[in-house]
């Protein structure tokens, strides 16, 4: 199952990008044998300042046709890492070819796009900067792959 991280904004060089790239590389290495990945980042930017509606239109174009859509949203479901890994495994085993993990901009995800999602995931009740959410998501993808592989990275 290919993983597409569709996100508003550009991740510039710096510690967040370094961490993001590292965890995505680890995910690709670990996930390959499990039928997960590759993962890629698709960044969109609303240069005209159209707000959430314009961002949603750009995000919809970035999402592959037929992909399972999972938004990252504070109103979503809070999962443990093992639960998240089970969801990834279930989606893969159901024959889903593509998973789109959608991260909105500073104002969040347009309600219409949120309603179209198959699943909504929350990293807690707090609001996180969308650049940090990318890092946290990449780490959780790697963690999920190691859980599914029976590796030692996740300890609980």
Q: What is the structure about, briefly put?
A:
With 156 residues, the protein is α/β, with parallel strands linked by helices. It has a five-stranded parallel beta sheet.
Could you explain the architecture of this structure?
The protein has 156 residues and is of the alpha/beta class. The chain has a single domain (2-149), classed as Alpha/beta knot. It has five helices and five strands, in the order E-H-E-H-E-H-E-H-E-H. Strands 2-1-4-3-5 form a five-stranded parallel β-sheet. Strand 3 (68-78), helix 3 and strand 4 (98-103) form a beta-alpha-beta unit. Helix 1 (15-32) packs parallel to helix 5 (130-149) and helix 3 (81-93) packs across helix 5 (130-149). The two termini are 26 Å apart. The model has no long low-confidence stretch (mean pLDDT 94).
What is the CATH domain class? Alpha Beta
Structural class: alpha/beta
* Strand percentage: 15-25%
Number of helices, where a helix is a run of at least 4 consecutive DSSP H or I residues: 5
User: What fold name stands as the CATH topology?
Assistant: Alpha/beta knot
The major pleated sheet works out as: 5 strands, parallel
Number of strands: 5
Helix content: 40-55%
With strands numbered from the N-terminus, the spatial order across the biggest sheet is 2-1-4-3-5
Domains (count): 1
Report the principal-axis shape.
globular
CATH level-two architecture: 3-Layer(aba) Sandwich
Q: Averaging pLDDT over every residue, what do you get?
A: 94
Order of helices and strands: EHEHEHEHEH
Tell me the Rg in angstroms. 15 Å
């Amino acid at each position: 199952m290919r993983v597409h991280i569709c996100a508003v904004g550009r991740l510039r060089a710096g510690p967040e990008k370094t961490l993001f790239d590292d965890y995505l590389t680890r995910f690709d290495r670990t996930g390959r044998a499990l039928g997960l990945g590759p993962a890629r980042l698709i960044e969109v930017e609303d240069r005209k300042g159209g707000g959430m509606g314009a961002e949603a239109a750009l995000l919809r174009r970035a999402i592959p046709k037929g992909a399972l859509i999972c938004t990252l949203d504070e109103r979503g479901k809070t999962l443990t890492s093992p639960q998240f890994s089970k969801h990834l495994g279930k989606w893969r085993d159901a024959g889903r070819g593509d998973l789109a993990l959608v991260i909105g901009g500073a104002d969040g995800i347009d309600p219409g796009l949120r309603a179209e999602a198959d699943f909504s995931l929350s990293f807690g009740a707090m609001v996180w900067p969308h650049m940090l959410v990318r890092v946290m998501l990449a780490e959780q993808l790697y963690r999920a792959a190691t859980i599914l592989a029976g590796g030692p990275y996740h300890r609980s």
